[in-house]
Design goal:
This protein is an all-alpha fold. The protein has one domain (3-114). It has five helices and no strands. The chain has helices at 3-28, 31-50, 52-56, 60-71, 75-114. The chain starts with a helix and ends with a helix. The chain crosses the membrane at residues 12-45, 94-113. Keywords: Membrane, Transmembrane, Transmembrane helix. This is DUF3899 domain-containing protein.
Length: 115
């Protein structure tokens, strides 16, 4: 299995969980719950992106190689490092945009129907 297919499966699984969570929140709390879930997703994605290289792998080899890259990366080493990191960041970016959309929809819908 390629890394891209694994990331897609994880992303779709997460999307399903978030969709169910949003549906349950709308039923019980209303649209403000959707806004809160979106804000929560947004904050979590930003925190993960800040710590993305450390959260991808925690092996000693990976950490040692990361320190070597920070010290003075060669072009091919930097390209290999970015090739590992780009799919991870694309998945995070998707969820950040989803969180922003849910926030705008939830808070906007709450304000529209409550005013």
């Amino acid at each position: 299995m390629s890394a891209r297919s694994v990331l897609n499966a994880v992303s779709l699984s997460g999307f399903l969980v978030v969709s169910i969570m949003v549906f349950v929140t709308v039923v019980y709390v209303g649209l403000i719950g959707v806004g809160v879930v979106g804000l929560l997703m947004w904050v979590i994605c930003n925190l993960i992106e800040i710590d993305a290289p450390a959260s991808v792998l925690h092996t000693a080899d990976f950490l040692a190689r990361r320190e070597q890259l920070r010290a003075g990366p060669r072009a091919e080493e930097h390209a290999a490092y970015m090739a590992e990191r780009i799919p991870w960041l694309q998945s995070i970016r998707f969820y950040r945009y989803l969180g922003a959309a849910l926030s705008v929809f939830g808070i906007g819908g709450f304000a529209l129907f409550q005013i």
